[in-house]
Design brief:
- This protein is mostly helical.
- The longest helix has 35 residues.
- It is globular.
- Helix 2 packs across helix 5, helix 4 crosses helix 7 and helix 5 crosses helix 6.
- Helix content is 45%, strand content 3%.
- It folds into 2 domains: 34 residues; 304 residues, Lysozyme (Orthogonal Bundle).
- The strands form 2 sheets. Strands 2-4-3 form a 3-stranded antiparallel beta sheet.
């Protein structure tokens, strides 16, 4: 009789544990399907082939692409500053930041110190997507930003939140503006090459921007049209938001040790920093000599990688749109930038709204060097 009672108790406990497990599984499935989340492939980094078994032997090598860049439009030489720029954000009207004063601090990197800031699922889903994104706040007047460029971020971890935000934006904003200026100059050069009928240079441009299936029979009108889709700028608020999310406001290990602002992947260990818990054993977060190299690589990645073809088409179709609206229109096209998928998209919209990053879309460099 005692054995029977003991067996019944074990069965009761096991049934209870099984029930709890089933409830947890059902809850997770409800969150996934209810929030519209989906698995997406890992992104690839600058000049790096995708980490798949597909044949990439026909793709130009990194050395070839760097040589092409040097021949067509060498990277700009910046005058580096020894100290972070002095930038007053007091004039920027801020929205209330849900990461302050509550149980969630959106400015802290993950517990491992590896990546990005975190948002809970409930906070993320309030940002919405597509037409649900908050309407942009228009700045009163465009403003000039001094061309003060730094190679590396200062240590922002021990600063208070507002000081960290101000210094991060002051450090990264001039680099984003300068990289966008470079892209605009490249567009004008390509237009001039096309007007002059310089077919050789157009084909080199097409190779640099990874336009597929280039051969001597291609119509240069088609190459030119494809280049106009690829060689273009990134809205400043969007670039800032991605830098904020990917670097945890500049506090992540990758940003501090490798100038990696945008979390781009490479597939050889010597090219970057290994995450503590990588989702792919071959992957590293690509390191860069300077912050500016990271910004340029990020923009080149968006302008060339096959995962962002829809993003580029949307940008081209809405090129004359106000930059604030364009940035929000482009966010849903970045689902494949992160394995977080829809959560990542909602996070970007939340970051732009809560930090009023639309303000910087009309910023201009006071002068170029």
């Amino acid at each position: 009789m005692a054995d029977l009672n003991s067996e019944q108790k074990r069965w009761s406990v096991n049934s209870w544990l099984l029930g709890v497990l089933l409830i947890l599984i059902i809850g997770q499935l409800a969150l996934i399907f209810g929030a519209g989340l989906s698995y997406v492939p890992m992104k690839s980094g600058y000049y790096e082939p995708p980490a798949t078994d597909q044949d990439v032997t026909a793709s130009p090598s990194r050395e070839r692409l760097l040589w092409l860049e040097k021949q067509l439009a060498p990277p700009p030489l910046l005058v580096w500053s020894d100290a972070p720029p002095d930038f007053n954000l007091a004039s920027v009207e801020k929205a209330d930041d849900p990461g302050q004063g509550g149980q969630m601090n959106s400015d802290a990197p993950t517990a491992s110190g590896d990546d990005k800031e975190n948002l809970s699922l409930s906070e993320v889903t309030t940002a919405g997507t597509g037409s649900d994104f908050p309407q942009p706040t228009q700045p009163a007047n465009p403003f000039a930003v001094a061309p003060d460029y730094i190679k590396h971020l200062p240590d922002l971890r021990m600063m208070d939140v507002e000081e960290r935000k101000a210094l991060f934006i002051a450090s990264v904003l001039p680099l984003i503006l300068r990289a966008n200026e470079e892209l605009l100059m490249r567009r004008e050069t390509i237009k001039r090459d096309y007007a002059q009928g310089n077919e050789d240079r157009l084909r080199r441009w097409a190779e640099l921007y990874l336009i597929d299936e280039i051969n001597e029979n291609d119509d240069i009108d088609q190459l030119y049209a494809a280049l106009m889709v690829r060689v273009d700028t990134v809205p400043v608020s969007l670039a800032l938001a991605q830098a904020i999310v990917e670097s945890g406001w500049g506090t992540s290990r990758f940003a501090r040790q490798g100038n990696a602002l945008f979390g781009q992947w490479a597939w050889a260990e010597h090219k970057g920093i290994k995450p503590y818990e990588p989702s792919d054993d071959r992957a590293v977060v690509r390191s860069f000599p300077t912050l500016f190299d990271s910004v340029r690589a990020y923009m080149h990645n968006l302008n060339t990688h096959f995962a962002y073809e829809g993003w580029r088409k949307t940008r081209a179709q809405n090129r004359n749109m106000d930059q604030n609206a364009l940035a929000l229109r482009l966010i849903p096209e970045l689902e494949r930038y992160s394995e977080d998928g829809q959560i990542y998209i909602r996070k970007l919209g939340n970051i732009i709204r809560t930090n009023n990053l639309q303000y910087y879309n009309d910023a201009r460099l006071a002068q170029a060097n």
